[in-house]
Design a protein that fits this description.
about 10% strand, about 100 residues, 4 helices, globular, 3 strands, alpha+beta, Arc Repressor Mutant, subunit A
Length: about 100
Protein backbone atom coordinates (compact mmCIF):
# COMPACT_ATOMS: atom_id res chain seq x y z
CA UNK A 1 0.00 0.00 0.00
CA UNK A 2 2.84 2.43 0.75
CA UNK A 3 4.25 1.83 -2.74
CA UNK A 4 1.00 2.97 -4.27
CA UNK A 5 0.92 6.03 -2.00
CA UNK A 6 4.50 7.00 -2.89
CA UNK A 7 3.89 6.68 -6.62
CA UNK A 8 0.62 8.59 -6.24
CA UNK A 9 2.36 11.36 -4.30
CA UNK A 10 5.10 11.73 -6.91
CA UNK A 11 2.56 11.82 -9.73
CA UNK A 12 0.41 14.39 -7.90
CA UNK A 13 3.40 16.67 -7.35
CA UNK A 14 4.29 16.55 -11.02
CA UNK A 15 0.70 17.14 -12.07
CA UNK A 16 0.68 20.18 -9.80
CA UNK A 17 3.90 21.43 -11.41
CA UNK A 18 2.42 20.91 -14.86
CA UNK A 19 -0.76 22.76 -13.87
CA UNK A 20 1.28 25.69 -12.60
CA UNK A 21 3.23 25.79 -15.85
CA UNK A 22 0.05 25.84 -17.94
CA UNK A 23 -1.97 28.15 -15.68
CA UNK A 24 -0.75 31.45 -17.04
CA UNK A 25 0.73 32.31 -20.38
CA UNK A 26 1.99 35.67 -19.06
CA UNK A 27 4.32 34.06 -16.54
CA UNK A 28 7.43 32.19 -17.57
CA UNK A 29 7.05 28.41 -17.27
CA UNK A 30 8.21 26.75 -14.07
CA UNK A 31 10.87 24.26 -15.10
CA UNK A 32 10.71 20.69 -13.84
CA UNK A 33 14.18 19.48 -13.00
CA UNK A 34 15.71 16.43 -14.62
CA UNK A 35 15.78 14.68 -11.23
CA UNK A 36 12.03 15.26 -10.82
CA UNK A 37 11.42 13.87 -14.31
CA UNK A 38 13.65 10.88 -13.55
CA UNK A 39 11.77 10.32 -10.26
CA UNK A 40 8.48 10.02 -12.10
CA UNK A 41 10.03 7.77 -14.76
CA UNK A 42 11.52 5.53 -12.07
CA UNK A 43 8.31 5.40 -10.00
CA UNK A 44 6.35 4.36 -13.08
CA UNK A 45 8.88 1.65 -13.96
CA UNK A 46 9.04 0.28 -10.41
CA UNK A 47 5.31 0.41 -9.62
CA UNK A 48 4.73 -3.22 -10.64
CA UNK A 49 7.54 -4.57 -8.48
CA UNK A 50 11.32 -4.90 -8.28
CA UNK A 51 13.38 -4.55 -11.46
CA UNK A 52 17.03 -5.12 -12.21
CA UNK A 53 19.17 -2.06 -12.76
CA UNK A 54 20.28 -3.58 -16.06
CA UNK A 55 16.68 -3.79 -17.32
CA UNK A 56 15.92 -0.24 -16.18
CA UNK A 57 19.01 1.10 -17.92
CA UNK A 58 18.05 -0.69 -21.15
CA UNK A 59 14.55 0.78 -20.96
CA UNK A 60 15.97 4.26 -20.40
CA UNK A 61 18.13 3.91 -23.51
CA UNK A 62 15.09 2.79 -25.52
CA UNK A 63 12.86 5.58 -24.16
CA UNK A 64 13.23 8.39 -26.68
CA UNK A 65 11.08 10.75 -24.59
CA UNK A 66 13.38 10.55 -21.54
CA UNK A 67 15.50 13.69 -21.49
CA UNK A 68 17.84 12.70 -18.65
CA UNK A 69 20.80 10.40 -18.09
CA UNK A 70 21.29 7.16 -16.18
CA UNK A 71 23.24 9.14 -13.56
CA UNK A 72 20.16 11.32 -13.04
CA UNK A 73 18.08 8.18 -12.48
CA UNK A 74 20.60 7.23 -9.76
CA UNK A 75 20.12 10.64 -8.13
CA UNK A 76 16.34 10.16 -8.26
CA UNK A 77 16.75 6.67 -6.75
CA UNK A 78 18.69 8.12 -3.84
CA UNK A 79 16.17 10.93 -3.25
CA UNK A 80 13.21 8.54 -3.42
CA UNK A 81 14.78 6.04 -1.04
CA UNK A 82 14.56 3.17 -3.53
CA UNK A 83 15.62 -0.15 -1.98
CA UNK A 84 18.58 -1.85 -3.62
CA UNK A 85 19.32 -5.55 -3.20
CA UNK A 86 22.17 -7.55 -4.66
CA UNK A 87 20.83 -10.94 -5.80
CA UNK A 88 23.63 -12.97 -7.33
CA UNK A 89 25.17 -10.75 -9.95
CA UNK A 90 22.03 -8.68 -10.46
CA UNK A 91 21.14 -5.49 -8.61
CA UNK A 92 17.38 -5.23 -8.00
CA UNK A 93 15.66 -1.92 -7.31
CA UNK A 94 12.28 -1.63 -5.64
CA UNK A 95 10.12 1.08 -4.13
CA UNK A 96 10.40 1.26 -0.32
Amino acid sequence: MTDVLMVSAVVLVLVAFAALRLRSSTRPPIPISAVEQASVWLAVHLRDGPRTARDLRAELRADTSADFSWRTVHRAKDRMGVSVAQIGRATRWSLP
